[in-house]
Amino acid sequence: MEALRAWRASSNLLGFAASRAAKAAPAARPLRPHVRCCSPAAASTTKPPPPPPQDRRRRSASSSSSSTSDRESIRAIRLKKVEELRGKGYEPYAYKWDRTHTTKELQDGYTHLENGEVCADVAVSIAGRIVARRAFGKLVFMTVRDDSGTIQLYCEKDSLTEEQFEQLKTIIDIGDIIGANGSIKKTEKGELSVYVKNFEILTKSLLPLPDKYHGLTDVDKRYRQRYVDMIANPEVADVFRTRAKVVSEIRKTMESFGFIEVETPVLQGAAGGAEARPFITHHNSLQRDLYLRIATELHLKRMLVGGLEKVYEIGRIFRNEGISTRHNPEFTTIEMYEAYSDYESMMNLAEEIVTRCAMATHGKLRVDYQGTEISLERPWRRETMHSLVKEATGIDFNSFGEDLESAKNAARGIKTESNENISLQACSSVGHVLNEVFETVVESSLVQPTFVLDYPVEISPLAKPHRRYAGLTERFELFICGREIGNAFSELTDPIDQRGRFENQIKQHNAKRAAMTKEVKSTEGKHEEDDFSYEVTLDEDFLTSLEYGMPPASGMGLGIDRLVMLLTNSASIRDLFFPRNDERALPRHHQPQYCATVLY
Length: 600
Known about the structure:
- By secondary structure, this protein is of the alpha+beta class.
- The chain has 3 domains: 74-203, CATH 2.40.50.140; 236-380 and 448-519 and 532-576, Bira Bifunctional Protein, Domain 2 (BirA Bifunctional Protein, domain 2); 383-436, no CATH class.
- Helices cover 34% and strands 22% of the residues.
- The longest helix is centred in the N-terminal third of the chain and has 32 residues, at 56-87.
- Residues 499-526 form a coiled coil.
């Protein structure tokens, strides 16, 4: 009851209490404006002093309990309003509303009006969510937001029926979605408004919106309830609009180069195309386990075998791995394959895709990312992994040949920014050591667009051997802002070589898995599982397809999410998604064991 009284006191629009208060007010008393905010918390404009540190936890728990109580009280009141509307013959959840304009169209079309001017001969109809409200006796002003922007509703008692004006006072709440008809007016203060002649409640909101002044500040709640985040922070929707532009521009680019879009299975009998822990599911009719795909690569290559020469797929990928600002268990990539080309062709295509997306979203090739200006003007820097590591450390890993211990000793002497030693325990070759040094020391420094070329064969099982340098492959990765954006190579088409690399990768994986299992046993199972705990198998069908003959080809995968992060200045990949309500990761020991196919 205390919460209910406080809520009623914060607004002159709640239930019949406000109506009785209005009747009891002296006629000669000047009316002060009543400002309705997004939640009862906004009724107070004075912030209380912060609690002492020792009381913060207790105060936080108490505040959460009070907030939940207020929320339920408001919901109960609004449910009664729904019943009241239906009792009077109104449906609070409409079927449709005929709009003539969006709010942006009105703002753009009538910006020329003078202050105080009314276009009485113009009839408009709009719809949107109420995000603010102010009452001045016989006048009520409401701000309505739709997908394109906001506009003010000018509601005058003399222009509405008595019943409708009473609804404004006692039924309508912040968060309700309404439709309104009327003419156009610019107020004396210069605010373009719809001069309302009639309105309908299209959707009655039952829950209060976040505080108008403080917004939705709980970061975890913002990600879990993205729909509320979008209401409280309308700029969030701009990220999704930009993402749509990026995906559209990518498709236009691919089609302009003669590629066709295809779809490959999401549910697979063996997860292939990358080395990653897959998600497992079960097909009841087939009585067998299936895996959510961890890449689209191997199925797209099968299409090259089948005769399609330029193919691509924009698809959702699922990997049962960690969550960070750069990684999400489900993400979107585009993979493309072109027959009779090599990885040089894919570098040019990568530049084309990214620059076209930048022009489509920004209209320029210089973009700001987290305070750093990124120049996307072509051509982009191209350097080999060996030369970048030598530039950063002074060590030429070519000089070690196959001497693993010498390579490890040299790597141990490298100082990192965190002053921690480079992890070399899992490195089984000089190529692995080189890659570990690159990822630890060099990768984060590649802020401007850089193609890193010619990776060691040990870490590139699907790439063609380099035509000039033994032990390397014709592979590149594209880095921008210290993050991998794309990965490509001249595709390996020799089925015998491919089988041998897969088998070697299985041996290396199983050795790491056995070592991990031994360590877990020695620590009585307290050691957390790492990424080697799953099994890997050969994709025999893919190897069979190669034996029918795949033409010389190049292929590339681009991370659409990371590209969108760059073009929207988003610090976290989570800003791009509607995460699941249960997205907090379970402890590793709660995750089942999975089987993956050997991939790249």
